[in-house]
Design a protein that fits this description.
By secondary structure, the chain is α/β, with parallel strands linked by helices. It is built from 15 helices and 26 strands. α14 links the parallel β25 and β26.
Length: about 550
């Protein structure tokens, strides 16, 4: 099936500050080959900085090949899946490219996962080996008997490559003594062997990554991304941000998340530049990093940008090297935008998704329209369609946003029906977002078909949270919505009808505490409200939109 995209009339604005090429040559070499190539060019130039520990490009290459050798000794071969569950650290970078060096498939996962989430993704992906932060091992150990396909687990510590005297503040909780991990392979033993001698031959259409993204039907889906998707998006990012080897990017967004992975790690490897990694975001640490290491670019979610520029010590640090701040998750308030512009920092807001290998539209400081997410990148085609008839709507009217580009994935892992629904033709994805586009080519998001909740830059889908809530024996019915929150954008709220025998025997707060143990910290309901009944359609379907409207009405009073 083929579709006719709308005319790329926005290309007339590809000039000046929004410098994009109308035609981009993407090449065919996978990014791991690019890393090896850049290592021979840049050699002693820093590739990674981690609280003062530096890895040159030569050392980065050597570590990637050592990790690949370790994986090879565990039997990993082309097509096998390898799970990575770590906060930001050099080991994540080494492991990501080592997996590709063998032709295997990266399965990145959150270190915040609880056992239900970890079990599902390890099982669904059929991961053969997992490389975990040691703090996550206890979660894995509780489900190990249920994962017959997982043959080995490697554990590492966030302190593994810390210097004796860190140059930036280290989160105190990662400095505690590491936990016991019986049955796991220690990182130092894992890499103590012969490095990989030769990269596996890769085709651009070979599967490179399974990026799990939540959906409306409950469990996450593994978006299948091939090497071509990564190559094309790296090329676009380097064009769009004018990436150069002299750049130093602050890596504070999670590397397991597609936005941090693409905007920080992959773009830097592609351009031959340097990444300064901190385990997780802290505004004062970020300010100190920008000052000390002359950071030129920093990607964040809006709440991080607000916290950083509003920090009481923000004026004490030299931010003059920082020229580009790219962000997403929620619109940046105009007063905060003004603070950045006064410091000479250009702002870039954008829109993308896991299925498109991150950003497909972006805006810059002089090309901002409040509320818009930007113009499409070079080579990106769009449709705005009536979600029922699938016919194009007139310019300026609302409809479902469809995207076509070389960076669009090829479907969902082991989910042919979901693939057919969301990927209607090669290169096309139905985003599930309601949007409109104006005469200049700016895209405006108007709503979410998927009923997604955005909290602190993370995507939370009601159906997945509800599925966990229904596992509690007291829950008869449940509906989850986002409720407005001044700082996080939205909070997750669950409306619950209790089974009659539990009424008066369990409290709302007890359910909140139970949910906290089942789900990631950004995902569990912060608020639970008991109801005698929930609004429903004539066919019995719970009407989340009515509950959402109630919450919006409360917030607007």
């Amino acid at each position: 099936m083929t579709f006719k995209p709308m005319e790329r009339f926005w290309e007339k604005n590809y000039q000046g500050e929004y410098l994009l090429a109308k035609e981009v040559h993407y090449g065919r070499d996978p990014i791991v080959q690019r890393l090896i190539y850049n290592a021979y060019i840049f050699r002693k130039k820093p590739a990674i900085i981690y609280y003062g520990t530096e890895f040159t490009w030569t050392e980065l290459k050597d570590m990637v090949l050592k990790v690949a050798g370790g994986l090879q000794r565990l039997g990993v071969k082309k097509g096998d899946r390898v799970y990575l569950g770590m906060q930001n650290c050099p080991q994540f970078v080494f492991s990501y490219f080592a997996v590709h060096a063998l032709g295997a498939v990266v399965v990145p996962g959150s270190p915040m996962f609880k056992k239900g989430e970890l079990h599902y993704i390890l099982s669904d992906s059929g991961s053969k080996v997992a490389i975990l932060e040691d703090d996550l091992y206890a979660v894995y150990d509780s489900i190990t008997d249920e994962l017959p396909e997982l043959e080995a687990v490697v554990v590492t510590s966030l302190t593994e490559y810390l210097p004796e005297e860190p140059t930036l503040p280290v989160p105190p909780d990662i400095l505690i003594d590491p936990p016991e991990c019986p049955g796991a392979i220690q990182w130092k033993d894992f890499i103590d062997g012969e490095p990989l001698a030769k990269l596996e031959q890769l085709d651009p259409e070979d599967l490179a990554q399974l990026q799990y993204t939540s959906g409306t039907t409950g469990h996450p889906k593994g978006a299948m991304l091939v090497h071509r998707n990564i190559i094309s998006k790296c090329t676009l990012y380097s064009y769009n941000a004018k990436g150069k080897p002299e750049d130093v990017s602050l890596t504070a967004l999670p590397l397991f998340h597609i936005t941090g992975m693409m905007g920080s790690m992959l773009k830097a490897i592609w351009c031959g530049s340097t990444i300064c990694i901190i385990a997780r975001f802290d505004p004062l640490t970020a300010l100190k990093a920008v000052d000390k290491y002359k950071i030129t670019g920093f990607g964040a979610v809006t709440t991080m940008n607000i916290a950083l520029i509003n920090h009481p010590d923000a004026d004490k640090y030299d931010l003059s090297s920082w020229t580009l701040a790219w962000m997403g998750g929620a619109p940046l308030p105009p007063a905060v935008q003004e603070k950045y512009l006064k410091r000479g920092i250009k702002l870039a807001e954008g829109y993308g998704m896991s299925e498109t290998m991150s950003t497909v539209a972006q805006t810059f400081a002089k090309w901002i329209k409040p509320g818009a997410v930007g113009m499409p990148f070079s080579g990106v085609d769009l449709r705005i369609v009536n979600p029922e008839t699938l016919e194009d709507v007139p310019l300026g009217e609302e409809g479902e946003l469809w995207v076509c580009h070389e960076s669009v994935g090829i479907g969902y892992w082991n989910k042919p029906e979901a693939t057919a629904e969301s990927f209607p033709a090669p290169g096309w994805v139905r985003t599930g977002d309601i949007a409109k586009i104006d005469e200049d080519g700016f895209i405006w998001l108007c709503g979410r078909l998927k009923e997604m909740i955005k909290t602190s830059g993370f995507s939370v889908f009601p159906a997945e949270v509800e599925e966990y809530m229904y596992k509690h024996p007291a829950v008869l019915e449940c509906a989850v919505v986002g409720t407005p929150h001044e700082y996080r954008g939205e909070d997750v709220k669950a409306f619950v009808v209790l089974k009659p025998e539990y009424v008066g025997k369990v409290s709302e707060q007890e359910l909140v505490e139970w949910a906290r143990e089942q789900m990631s910290v950004y995902k569990y309901p912060r608020i639970i409200e008991f109801r005698d009944s929930l609004p429903k359609t004539g066919t019995g379907k719970i009407l989340r939109k009515e509950l959402k409207a109630e919450e919006l009405a409360k917030a607007n009073k």
